[in-house]
Design goal:
- Helix content is 75%, strand content 4%.
- The protein is mainly alpha-helical.
- It folds into two domains: 64 residues, no CATH class; 265 residues, MetI-like (MetI-like fold).
- The strands form two sheets. It has a three-stranded antiparallel sheet, with no helix packed on it. A two-stranded antiparallel ribbon has the order 4-5.
- A hairpin with a 4-residue loop joins strand 1 and strand 2.
- Helix 1 packs across helix 2 and helix 7 packs antiparallel against helix 12.
- It starts with a helix and ends in a 7-residue tail after the last helix.
Length: 391
């Protein structure tokens, strides 16, 4: 705008006489149309601010804007760096607590591995071989030193590297999480929008009542109910595993096996997301600018999707991110019920067998996933909400 004022002021002062201050003035014998609202600004600019001064002000404004953008980028990088540093004590604390908890579980790992017929001398020798006779802090220190080098130990029950075991299981869990996210996010957001747009009506009460029930049903109950309905009664989908061992497999077979586990994992988070979306949207829909948009005759769909949803995104992203973080932990029950060979099933079997190395590695992966999701959510909220300032 400053540049436009400068150029117009210069043109008016370069020897070309402008006659008249109305919307249609005369310059050089020809009528010149001007917007009525700009006339006072043009007069002030010509009379009080020289053209060179206007150009200088425009340059300073552009330089200040660039500097502010650079400062915001640097501040964001610093914020992410501080958050990453802050995750280190969190991961250390989680791994230490789990390590100590596994040590406090009754039973002897060496005796469980060797069997009931092993002599006490053999058990003691095997305990020394595994390092279980050393203090807990020494054992944890050795595990942590190897973990920092990418070595999570060796699984006693599977007789293989924990890193290789978790890498294979994590791929299968990623497939399950992807299917759950594809179902949970759209279902939760759509249900919340429908309830918010019909607030205090029967549709709103029905949706909120249903989500209240679904959000509080345990995952294994949902899974067993889906198995009885879609596998036992109607025979629509298979019950266990990722693929049919009697067939050739393929993507279609994988999708058929994926439907019930994904739906089981997605239903509780979708219900929670729907309730949060409804709560955030109701608060935004009662704002004055929404009432003004409706008074101007804008379609209700445009008001909700373009104006209301945009301002309700930060809390929606926050609760959605938390549910995404909980998905990997909640998949433990789903993978066990449906015999899905993922990280959750490996963790369940490792806890039953007191396989400390697998438990430590699995919990560490889940903790890293949860921390990473929270970091992405915080950065997304900062980028989407202009009122949010990173200090």
């Amino acid at each position: 705008m400053l540049r436009a004022l400068s150029s117009q002021g210069t043109a008016a002062g370069d020897g070309e006489d402008v006659i008249g201050d109305g919307p249609t003035a005369v310059s050089g014998g020809h009528p010149v149309c001007r917007p009525p609202g700009i006339l006072p600004l043009l007069s002030v600019a010509r009379e009080t601010v020289p053209a060179q001064r206007l150009r200088a002000l425009a340059s300073r404004a552009e330089a200040g804007l660039s500097r502010n953008n650079g400062e915001e980028g640097g501040t964001m990088i610093g914020y992410v760096a501080r958050r990453l540093v802050g995750t280190i004590p969190v991961l250390l604390g989680v791994s230490f607590v789990v390590f100590v908890a596994m040590q406090l579980i009754p039973g002897d790992v060496a005796r469980a591995l060797l069997g009931p017929l092993a002599t006490q001398a053999t058990v003691d020798e095997y305990r020394r071989y595994l390092g279980l006779d050393q203090p807990i802090l020494v054992q944890y220190g050795k595990w942590l030193g190897h973990a920092l080098q990418g070595d999570l130990g060796r699984s006693f029950s599977n007789n293989m590297s924990v890193t290789d075991l978790l890498a294979e299981r994590l791929r299968n869990s990623a497939i399950l999480l992807t299917g759950s996210l594809i179902l949970a996010l759209p279902l939760g957001i759509v249900a919340g929008l429908v309830a918010a747009s019909k607030q205090h009506r029967p549709t709103d009460r029905a949706v909120m009542g249903l989500t209240l029930v679904l959000a509080n049903i345990p995952t294994f109950v949902v899974g067993l109910g889906l198995i009885v309905l879609f596998a036992v009664q109607w025979h629509f989908f298979p019950v266990q595993g990722m693929r049919d061992l009697r067939g050739e497999g393929g993507r279609l077979d994988l999708l058929r096996h994926l439907v019930l586990p994904s739906l089981t994992t997605a239903i509780p988070p979708a219900a929670i997301i729907a309730r949060m979306v409804r709560s955030a949207m109701v608060g935004v829909l009662n704002q004055e600018y929404i009432k003004a948009a409706r008074a101007n005759g804008l379609p209700e769909r445009l008001v909700i999707l373009r104006y209301a949803l945009r301002n309700a995104l930060p809390p929606i992203i926050t609760i959605s991110g938390l549910q995404v973080g909980f998905l990997l932990g909640g998949a433990v029950f789903t993978e066990y019920i449906f015999a899905w060979p993922g990280l959750g099933e490996a963790l369940y079997k490792a806890i039953s067998a007191r396989d400390i190395a697998v438990v430590q590695g699995s919990v560490l992966v889940i903790a890293v996933w949860f921390v990473a999701v929270n970091l992405v959510v915080d950065v997304a909220n900062t980028a989407l909400d202009p009122r949010s300032k990173v200090r």
